[in-house]
Amino acid sequence: MAAVLCQINGARHRPQLRSSRQSVFSSLSPFQATRLATRRTTSLTTFSIDRRDRDIDRLTSAEFDLLVVGGGITGAGVALDAATRGLSVGLVEKGDFATGTSSRSSRLIHGGLRYLRQREFGLVHEALRERQHLSEMAPHLVKPLPFLLPILVGSPFDDMKTALRAGLWLYDLAGGARGGRFHQRISMGESLAMSPALSQSKVLDGFIYWDAVNDDARTTLSVIRTAANRYDAAVVNYCEVLEVNPPRRHSTDEARVRIAARDVISDELLELRARAVMIASGVWSDKIAVADNRGQHPERIRPAKGIHVVVPRDQFPGDAATLLPVPGDDRFIFTIPWGGYTLIGTTDTDYDGPLDDPAADSDEIDYLLDTVNAWTSKPIGRSSVTSSFAGLRPLASAGTDEKTADMSRRHIVEAVAPRIGAVYGGKFTTWRSMAAEAVDFAGTDLGLGRLPRSVTADQLIDGAQTSESCTPTSALLESTVGEESAGRIYARYGSHARAIAALCEDPALRTPLAPGLDYLRAEAIYAARHEMAVTLDDLLTRRTRSSTDNWRVARASAAEVAALVAGELGWSHADRDVQVAEYIRATEQFDPKAAE
Questions:
Q1: Does residue 42 fall inside a structural domain?
Q2: Top mean-pLDDT range of 145-159, 289-303, 404-418
Q3: Number of domains forming the structure of the chain
Q4: Which of the two residues, 300 and 558, has the higher pLDDT score?
Q5: Domain CATH for 270
Q6: Cβ pair 108, 323 in contact under 8 A
Q7: Does 346 sit behind a cis peptide bond, omega within 30 degrees of 0 on the bond before it?
Q8: What is the pTM of this model?
Q9: Residues 136, 178: one domain?
Q10: 49-66: per-residue pLDDT in tens?
Q11: Residues 141 and 231 grouped into a single domain
């Protein structure tokens, strides 16, 4: 790291940041130069691109108790947990928040019924406990969802009805029945009513149980906003860590970790300092360079690829998630209702390709469609698929050759160097408990000392509100955009839906962001002003889910959306063209035809 820090220190001194930014304009793209030249003054609680600039200044001019590397759900959780315990916290993410696995999940908050077969009773209990916590912390984001387990003629489910019933009772006892929702046995007619696409000749009866669904990217963003706006954590997207340097012995700085980083937007080199660092970078955690630790930073991550395909809701209708057994394979997949679409997933295979932007391949798409079509009355063709996406599970490796589908979803927290820790593995559902354990570890093993207990289970996440304040917000929305749109907007923004309603007083912003998608133009404006959206990809892929709902429609609307937010983000006509081209390049992975 010394060489990297020499470059930083030799390049410029941070107090002259403003002039140094001006001096590098000649080497920046038009977008970068315009972005840096058009700074606006904002309040501390406005979570905008200008807040990002302010937090870069804070990160480079102050020393933090804990720096978190990674802006997915685990890093977001660590930042929030540490900040609620009174620590000064910084967080940096090399891409956008939730740009990796945390925006590419099945979007479920669940205990994991299948883990009972693997005797992971503790994990299931923990996940179901966390499901309850999250439903209380973010009731607008985490919604109960019925799951249908149909008993199908000739399927493994038909051969193991007694075992399934026993497993569902165990699931209830482990916490699945929290809220009074126990599993039920239902008839063939009731099963078909819940999942009408199933072939009547193949359905005997079924079971129903309950879990929950959420928008993974928005949950991640909301956790980060809570840490930043409520507890003043300094959080920066598009800031890549180049190297982490443990404390130097026999130095006045011996208790400090130095971090070399790069602002991806301006291409500036940055030096950050913290008393401790927690790496929470998912599948990238092994790749973070820790100086003076070559050969000692263990390969802990075994990436497992999971893909989903998306089809219009009318191709697989119903208001319940459905479990479908894979013919000839000892596993099952889900169909999950998602607004006007249905998600179908997932696969679970080893992955040794590039970690950035994995894509579904043709065989994987066929695997999912063939499974669905084995049990439905009307086959779903490739032409009906509107999008496909792949994510990488950061499984904690035990050094065995077992299938990724059989590997534990438990997590590991450990030290990788003095005052530098890492958290690996886990599930999206258990992010809060993972984060609490990681912060406990930072106190006991990374030199931060005795800390108060975790209190995040008692926190309301950004956008959550009490029932007393919910009714006025809902009424305001309904009067502005109508009941159906109001429900969707409230489910995404919670109390911040008031700001969306205010924007919708402009009739031009009440219209759809793109034809056939359940997002309004007002949401893009809101994301640019209040959600630290930096690129067009941020807006269409994570602030809204346009890209993964229907990639072709999102692509067709890209230029219009870029024009809509150009004034908010300081984009010239040339910048808009660059943004559209980069968006198409970055999201071609979602095009199901690209896999053919």
A1: no
A2: 145-159
A3: 3
A4: 558
A5: 3.50.50.60
A6: no
A7: yes
A8: 0.91
A9: yes
A10: 999 999 999 999 999 999
A11: no
